Amino acid sequence: MNLSTPTPAPGHTPGPPSGAVGVDRGRLFAFDLETTGPDPRTAHVVTSALIAIDGSHVVTRDWLADPGVEIPEGATAVHGITTAHAREHGRPHEQVVAETVEGIRAGWREGRILVVFNAAFDLTILRRWDPSFEVLGPVVDPFVVDRAVDPYRKGKRTLEALCTHHGVRLEGAHEAAADAIAAARLAWRFLGEVPELGGTGWRELNARQARWHADRQRDFAAYLERTGKDSSGVNTEWPMAVL
To answer: What is the pTM of this model?
Structure first.
């Protein structure tokens, strides 16, 4: 699958990520979850996908979990996985979470950029089920970046909407691997086009996105308050919410 990314130069040997060097957009690691619900504080994992991308070379790992609870009809309508299917074919929820977390850690050790659309959702779920999980390398969140660089554009900011706006292919929306690939295409583009994402170490890359997210969420909370609505559920933390 071609992401239109350059193939690493011969002799390129990746190493562990460092806070002192720039990130390499040719070495991406896309991640996505499909879950039992929209609240990361209560959601269980249903499917997980991790996709290592080196130019046109793509390696996919994906999991189907038995979440151990009923999958609501609304969630099934989004990702297509029923409770019966997950129970029959899925692996234990704890194992899927553990292998996903270790896969992400391995990607950072290889010097990859983790790409997660709306990271504060997916990564918060991992932290909830594995309190030892922490961010140890670069993360790029196309949702956060798009809101920061084009804040006044009207319309939805879903993955599908962003792919349409930026001319990026999305094949099989709400399937974890397909969503992860599409997010990687967006991230690759943003890393090449948004100056604030380039020429910096991963810690500053993450810190900038955290500031962008916090600023937008505070503005949203203020809007809710002005209109007499409850703002207590607005999360300003990125890339993971405080549990």
So the answer is: 0.89
Number of H helices, E strands in the chain: 8, 6
Contact yes or no for 112/28 (Cβ under 8 A): yes
**pLDDT tens digits, one per residue of 94-107:** 999 999 999 999 99
Beta-bridge mates of residue 31: 50, 116
* CA 192 to centroid of chain Cα atoms: 18
Interacting residues of 185 by C-beta distance below 8 A, sequence separation 6+: 3, 4, 163, 168, 169
Residue 233 pLDDT greater than 60, yes or no = yes
The verdict on whether omega for the bond into residue 239 sits within 30 degrees of 0, i.e. cis, is yes
Q: Which two structure tokens, joined as six digits, stand for 157?
A: 């900011």
C-alpha to C-alpha distance for 128 and 146, rounded to whole angstroms: 26
pLDDT: which is higher, 98 or 242:
98
